Automatic annotation (TrEMBL):
Coiled coil start-end: 133-167
Residue intervals of the Enkurin domain: 133-225
Region described as Disordered: spans on this chain: 14-56
Protein name as catalogued: ENKUR protein
Keywords on record: Cell projection, Coiled coil, Cytoplasm, Cytoskeleton
Biased composition (Basic and acidic residues): 41-56
GO MF annotation list: calmodulin binding
CC per GO annotation: acrosomal vesicle; axonemal microtubule
Subcellular location(s) per record: Cell projection, Cilium; Cytoplasm, Cytoskeleton
């Protein structure tokens, strides 16, 4: 019996377009535009348009000047050159190895740490110049700062607190911090009202200010106050 070769293709096309015929009537397929027909040689690659010559003149390369001399490459005899370099050069020194096992396992001696190459330096144990220079600069800046502070204090006529007054103020600040910290610890855990939140924020600000003042007085031994 005759069986068409296009049977599978027709079957595949019918199954592919089957969903388009589920409604009444033919499928609503977009009709191709008559202006979109295939033109001749439309699929061939197009070349870029040629540049038009200006005033009928062709762009020719510029001529070299009269003083131009072409570079003449001289052929080198690399064999003789390498032979002379080998004869006049210094022989390569053998590298030192260290063998640490009976099987002959070896490794370089210099990077192993067994060769004392650092203590044989000329500047071993000598303080670098940049360190001494930096220390001198820091010392000079500190002296200039102290002199500037003394001049400003003389101009403003500030009073320096004695060690006893500084200690008393520090103790009073710490005592006040303990008092406020105790009040802060007694606050309720849940701050569900506006008054509780405001009270908590106020105590936190006071504690931060006291901690800042205590750290400043403990850091600086010389404290000056204005009249």
């Amino acid at each position: 019996r005759y069986i068409s070769k296009l049977k599978e293709i027709v079957k595949h096309e019918a199954e592919k377009n089957k969903s388009q015929w589920k409604t009444m009537g033919p499928a609503k397929v977009a009709v191709p535009s008559p202006n979109g027909f295939l033109q001749k040689c439309s699929k061939e690659p197009k070349l870029a348009p040629k540049k038009k010559e200006q005033d009928g003149k062709r762009f020719l390369p510029l001529l070299p000047p009269r003083t131009y001399h072409p570079v003449i490459h001289i052929k080198k005899n690399f064999i003789n050159k390498n032979a002379v370099a080998v004869i006049t050069g210094e022989p390569k020194k053998p590298r030192h190895f260290c063998v640490d096992t009976r099987h002959g396992d070896k490794y370089l001696l210099e990077p192993s740490g067994l060769y004392p190459k650092y203590i044989k330096k000329k500047n071993y144990g000598v303080i670098p110049k940049y360190v001494t220079r930096r220390k001198e600069e820091m010392k000079r800046e500190e002296e200039e700062h102290q002199a500037r502070v003394l001049e400003e204090l003389k101009k403003k006529a500030l009073k320096r607190l004695s060690e006893e007054e500084r200690t008393d103020i520090l103790k009073a600040l710490k005592k006040k911090w303990e008092k406020i910290n105790h009040a802060y610890q007694c606050l309720p855990i849940i701050t569900d009202t506006r008054y509780k939140r405001m009270r908590k924020e106020e105590l936190e600000l006071q504690l931060q200010q006291l901690e800042h003042d205590i750290a400043a007085i403990e850091k600086y031994k010389c404290v000056y106050i204005a009249d």
